[in-house]
């Protein structure tokens, strides 16, 4: 909102002098000239006129009441005398004759200082005295109709010297250097720059600025004028996308489009982002939007069956999926539109409920010479944030405190000063023993984060050539991108190419061709997973490993035997410290390489049958292949293992998708007032996947780190396909540019659903009313555009497994006569009534443009209800299965969105602001016939719940209600079933249901990862050749389930810990910071502090300085044959303000599992980047 006031107040300043005048009567002298001079002084404006047109004109001396309105006074003075005025600047007016036809003689114009307050008197033509060293330049400025433009500002670039054109568009001024550049600017016209050179006469034509209402936006199966759109669509230009130096285009969307949540849950190079448009609409089906690339619909398929999951990893600890759209070079994107409401997305029917992202790649321009472009940048990356952990001294005190508290509580004869020998005599429980490294510190203080995080390079190079003739246009590009990971053995490399060609071989026929092959190579270190996964996570292993452990042995080899498992006493194996693998050993001995080759290709033919009626045949194909090789070396010792357990895995997949579409489009204006545009068509699409996997182990050595080097123990293949046949139609009707109607319908027939429900129809309707075109609005000259719009529609979601509706058979071995026999058995139950999840959405919006769109505001309210949710429900045991997938359940998302674009300052210095805000509320309305909640397990048991009245996948656990300070408080509190031996310093848990005890029935919703609202703000500045862009974005109200607190903040001191545990509860006299309980090695047996609870839920709100870019465009006079040259420096993720203790407040280890979102269990941190780049065109 601050942005709105900035942009708005500057425009209001144009009228402020008039409004601040007292309401009094103006006595008019007899001469018009004198009256105008008085008005200029009174209102502090400049009024320009030629003496000849007002000579001899007298006005009535009688006072006129105009309430201090300058323009009203001017009208009353000028209209009776055949004169009129035009506004040429903020505080400048030009008087001229009405409908002048005869050419006037040029008049010399007095130079004025532009950008300063106008003098409070009338400017009159005077002679410009020419210096002996000055160059006199004269000329005329005309518009697109060859009419002279009065009041045009002409500035000598780099100075405050200039002039304005007279009533006929003529000007005259002097410059001191033939290299001087003149800047011609006028409200509503495109600014133009010209070098004087040896010219003394310069005639200039200014082109009218394209109104934002006339901008063409890409919609499904066509384009529309922005002013005619009645749906809700967000857009980004190529410039917006390139402003942030990111690996893929999806990250560039973050914070720039209202209603679109983009999360970067992992900082691993090449990792996928998570995008949600207007909330989460499904529990079991997918929530990713549909992507349409140059007309080709693709889904962001991150199925492990395609990319090749690691067999020995459980789903909860799977590596983050590689981004399947990471093959797209953002430098090739011309525009990006997000279809958010049903009216905009219904043209994609069963795939539109999660929103649609339209990507249009660059094409050449007709009738232009070849333009060669080269863009490059090089940068350095480092970890954006380090977690604050204990050092050796702090951990030593913490371990002793934890061990002693458990020992003193459980052993009646215990003494805090007992040595381990004495403790061993009283109890053999290793939880009471002080490990040797802490009983007798060696002075080792290892910073494990410092060892695993590196400063590494990132680089990008792109070259392109584009242009066209009158009958064809072309665009060719090639790019190379290489990003090293801040953790060794991780990185992302991409080679990309693109060719777009359009040609008109004969009149009315257009043929187009597009091809985009690309190759990526991703090094996937197992960074983002718990330390106990297989293979273990690098980051989490570094966090839990004690700083008392040395990373290397004396001989220089990696220390894999002195991990925390070695922290034992002289009495035997019993220190009860957690074992973790050396993170340096994981980096060295675990390799995981993923190669992807992807090609998009399309060919289209478009023929204009008659004027306005076109037929288009579009064919496209998407071929996508993955090859993955994984190896864990024999030399690697996992945690406390004494021998290696090598294994290898190889995956290969080929996915191809083809599309054929036939469409008819019609665009015609009738009798000037009626405009109709329509499209109808037929679409057929088919997708096939072939994948296989081989697994080997028992490698005798590491000389052959592959499948062939070991014993093949298992394998498998995966073949799937789906198809979709559709009919579609859309009609847009506009009457006099002010009444707008749109109707859309699409019918889809999908192979994924039951026999009786394969076909679904998805209609939508929308309407708009441009009030600004109404007669009653004409007097409000400040209002450029005012449009009300509303829409209703239905869309679907077909992102379910390909064979969910039919019963499947799987291999099943059984024993017969002591012989293993291969067989098959049912693995899923069929449901021939399975159908789409359907989303009904209502949207009301307003678009408001002021002052020639210098201030533009767009606001939306929406409500979308998704019904027929796909959920697994219990079925009778006689069926042979525990659950079956059925269409039951309902979820609602409703919210508001606000976008403000403001051009705050225009001229030699410019300042513009883009701001967006969105808030969404997600609620489950129905869940099956009984309404029973759905409990979900993530990385650490049941900690999520989907229940009526709460958001999908909310966190589920106990509510912390402070810390016990005395035994009397414990005795008076409800009995806690999980804290049979609670002591002062333990967490107190709330009796939620009020039954006088604390047990499992008191678990409740304790937060969710969905934010209350999101926002983004970008300020752009330019002056002379300099440009500066500053981009902030953030979210408020999201929560994170920080599962790392199960080890790094549980009080047991079995691992290293967050530093906030140095402020733990010690005693009633020393209660710490009031939120951290006491240390206790056996808390699960005593106070139950480590149970799922609100203690592990943290505030994920953040405010981030996403990027700053400072650039300089060199003057053309310095470039010779180079058309343009810009150099810039940029930084991303420079600053993040958050209360979250972990690396990244966007973390989401289970991004692919809807019901268990928002977990942090050791994710790859984000990086902070600094880059230097060049943009060159020839």
Q: What is the secondary structure topology, with strand pairs?
A:
Layout: H1 2-12, H2 16-19, H3 32-43, E1 46-48, H4 51-54, H5 70-78, E2 83-89, E3 92-97, E4 135-142, E5 153-156, E6 162-164, E7 170-175, E8 181-185, E9 192-195, E10 201-205, E11 216-219, E12 222-225, E13 233-237, H6 238-242, H7 249-253, E14 260-263, E15 274-277, E16 290-293, E17 296-298, H8 304-307, E18 333-339, H9 342-345, E19 356-361, E20 368-383, H10 392-410, H11 420-426, H12 436-439, H13 448-452, E21 456-468, E22 472-484, E23 491-506, E24 509-523, H14 538-544, H15 583-589, E25 590-610, E26 613-632, E27 647-670, E28 674-697, E29 711-735, E30 739-750, E31 759-770, E32 783-797, E33 809-816, E34 819-826, E35 837-850, E36 855-867, E37 870-874, E38 883-887, E39 890-905, E40 909-926, E41 934-937, E42 942-946, E43 954-957, E44 960-963, H16 967-972, E45 975-976, E46 987-989, E47 997-998, E48 1004-1007, E49 1013-1023, E50 1026-1036, E51 1039-1042, H17 1045-1048, E52 1097-1099, E53 1102-1113, E54 1124-1138, E55 1159-1160, E56 1167-1177
């Amino acid at each position: 909102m601050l942005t709105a006031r900035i942009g708005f107040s500057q425009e209001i300043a144009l009228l402020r002098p008039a409004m601040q005048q007292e309401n009094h009567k103006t006595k008019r002298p007899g001469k018009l000239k004198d009256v105008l001079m008085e008005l200029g002084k009174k209102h502090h404006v400049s009024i320009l006129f030629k003496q000849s047109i007002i000579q001899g004109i007298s006005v009535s001396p009688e006072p006129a009441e105009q309430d201090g309105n300058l323009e009203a006074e001017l009208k009353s003075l000028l209209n009776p005398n055949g004169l009129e005025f035009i506004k040429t600047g903020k505080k400048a007016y030009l008087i001229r004759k009405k409908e002048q036809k005869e050419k006037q003689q040029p008049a010399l114009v007095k130079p004025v200082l532009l950008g300063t307050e106008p003098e409070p008197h009338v400017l009159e033509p005077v002679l410009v005295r020419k210096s002996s060293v000055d160059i006199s330049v004269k000329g005329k400025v005309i518009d697109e109709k060859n009419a002279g433009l009065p009041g045009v500002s002409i500035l000598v670039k780099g100075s405050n010297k200039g002039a304005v054109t007279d009533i006929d568009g003529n000007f005259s001024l002097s410059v001191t250097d033939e290299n001087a550049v003149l800047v011609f600017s006028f409200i509503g016209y495109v600014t133009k720059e010209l070098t004087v050179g040896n010219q003394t006469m310069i005639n200039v034509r200014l082109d009218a600025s394209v109104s934002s209402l006339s901008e063409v936006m890409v919609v499904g199966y066509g384009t529309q004028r922005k002013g005619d759109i009645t749906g809700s669509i967000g857009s980004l230009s190529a410039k917006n996308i390139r402003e942030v130096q990111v690996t893929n285009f999806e990250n560039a969307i973050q914070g720039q489009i209202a209603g679109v949540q983009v999360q970067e849950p992992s900082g691993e190079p090449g990792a996928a982002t998570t995008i949600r448009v207007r909330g989460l609409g499904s529990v079991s089906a997918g929530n990713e939007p549909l992507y349409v690339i140059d007309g080709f619909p693709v889904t962001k398929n991150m199925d492990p069956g395609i990319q090749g999951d690691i067999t020995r990893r459980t789903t909860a600890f799977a590596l983050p999926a590689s981004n399947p759209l990471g093959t797209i070079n953002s430098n090739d994107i011309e525009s990006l539109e997000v279809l958010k409401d049903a009216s905009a997305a219904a043209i994609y029917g069963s795939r539109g409920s999660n929103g649609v992202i339209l990507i249009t790649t660059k094409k050449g321009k007709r009738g232009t010479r070849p333009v060669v472009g080269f863009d490059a940048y090089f940068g350095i990356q480092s970890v954006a944030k380090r977690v604050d952990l204990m050092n050796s001294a702090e951990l030593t005190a913490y371990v002793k405190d934890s061990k002693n508290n458990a020992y003193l509580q459980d052993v009646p004869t215990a003494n805090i000063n007992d040595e381990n020998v004495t403790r061993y005599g009283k109890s053999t429980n290793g939880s009471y023993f002080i490990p040797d490294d802490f009983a007798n510190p060696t002075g080792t203080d290892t910073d494990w984060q410092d060892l695993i995080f590196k400063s590494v390079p990132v680089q990008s190079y792109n070259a392109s050539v584009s242009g066209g003739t009158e009958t064809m246009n072309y665009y060719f590009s090639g790019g190379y991108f290489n990003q090293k990971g801040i953790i060794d053995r991780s990185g992302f490399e991409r080679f990309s190419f693109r060719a777009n060609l359009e040609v008109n071989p004969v009149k009315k026929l257009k043929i187009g061709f597009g091809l985009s092959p690309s190759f990526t190579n991703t090094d996937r270190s197992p960074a983002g997973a718990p330390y106990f996964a297989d293979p273990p996570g690098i980051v989490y292993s570094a966090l839990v490993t004690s700083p008392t452990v040395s990373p290397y042995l004396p001989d220089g080899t990696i220390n894999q035997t002195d991990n925390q498992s070695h922290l034992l006493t002289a009495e035997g194996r019993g220190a009860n410290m957690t074992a973790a693998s050396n993170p340096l050993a994981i980096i060295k001995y675990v390799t995981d390489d993923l190669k992807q080759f992807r090609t998009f290709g399309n060919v289209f033919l478009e023929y204009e049958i008659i004027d306005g009626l076109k037929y288009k045949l579009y064919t496209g194909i998407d071929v996508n292949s993955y090859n993955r090789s994984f190896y864990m070396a024999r030399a690697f010792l996992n945690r406390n293992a004494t021998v290696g357990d090598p294994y290898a895995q190889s995956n290969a997949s080929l996915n191809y998708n083809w599309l054929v579409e036939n469409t008819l489009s019609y665009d015609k204006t009738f009798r000037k007032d009626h405009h109709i545009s329509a499209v109808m068509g037929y679409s057929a699409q088919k997708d096939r996947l072939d994948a296989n996997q081989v697994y080997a182990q028992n490698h005798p050595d590491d000389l052959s780190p592959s499948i062939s080097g070991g014993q093949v123990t298992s394998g498998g293949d995966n073949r799937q396909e789906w198809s979709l046949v559709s009919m579609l139609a859309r009609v847009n009707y506009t009457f006099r540019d002010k009444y707008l109607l749109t109707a859309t319908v699409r019918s889809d027939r999908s192979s994924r659903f039951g026999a009786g429900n394969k076909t679904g129809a998805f209609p939508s309707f929308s309407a708009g009313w441009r009030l600004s075109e109404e007669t009653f609005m004409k007097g409000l000259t400040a209002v450029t555009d005012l449009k009300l719009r509303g829409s209703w529609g239905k869309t679907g979601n077909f992102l379910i497994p390909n064979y969910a509706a039919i019963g499947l058979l799987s291999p099943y071995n059984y024993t017969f006569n002591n012989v293993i026999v291969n067989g098959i058995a049912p693995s899923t139950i069929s449901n021939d009534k399975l159908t789409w999840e359907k989303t009904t959405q209502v949207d009301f919006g307003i678009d408001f443009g002021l002052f020639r769109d210098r201030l533009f505001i767009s606001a939306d309210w929406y409500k979308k209800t998704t019904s027929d949710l796909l959920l697994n429900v219990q079925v009778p045991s006689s069926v042979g299965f525990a659950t079956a997938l059925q269409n039951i359940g309902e979820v609602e998302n409703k919210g508001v969105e606000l976008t403000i674009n403001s051009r705050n300052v225009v001229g030699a210095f410019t300042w513009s602001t883009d701001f967006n805000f969105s808030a969404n509320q997600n609620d489950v309305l129905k869940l099956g016939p009984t309404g029973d909640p759905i409990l979900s397990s993530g990385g650490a048991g049941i900690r999520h719940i989907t229940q009526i009245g709460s958001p999908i996948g909310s966190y589920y656990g106990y509510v912390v209600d402070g810390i016990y300070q005395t035994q009397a408080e414990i005795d008076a509190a409800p009995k806690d079933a999980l804290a049979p031996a609670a002591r002062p310093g333990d967490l107190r848990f709330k009796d939620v249901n009020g039954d006088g005890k604390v047990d499992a029935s008191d678990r409740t919703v304790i937060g969710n990862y969905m934010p209350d609202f999101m926002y983004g703000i970008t300020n752009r500045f330019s002056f002379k050749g300099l440009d500066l862009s500053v981009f902030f974005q953030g979210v408020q109200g999201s929560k994170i389930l920080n599962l790392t607190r199960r080890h790094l903040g549980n009080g047991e001191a079995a691992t290293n810990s967050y530093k906030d545990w140095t402020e733990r509860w010690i005693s009633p006299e020393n209660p710490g910071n009031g939120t951290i309980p006491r240390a206790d090695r056996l808390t699960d047996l005593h106070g139950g502090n480590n149970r799922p609870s609100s203690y592990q839920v943290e505030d994920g709100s953040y405010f981030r300085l996403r990027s700053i870019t400072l650039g300089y465009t060199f003057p053309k006079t310095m470039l010779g044959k180079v058309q343009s040259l810009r150099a810039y420096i940029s930084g991303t993720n420079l600053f993040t303000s958050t209360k979250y203790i972990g690396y990244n407040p966007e973390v989401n280890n289970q991004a692919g599992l809807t019901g268990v979102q928002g977990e942090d269990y050791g994710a790859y941190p984000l990086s902070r980047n600094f880059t230097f780049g060049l943009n060159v065109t020839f």
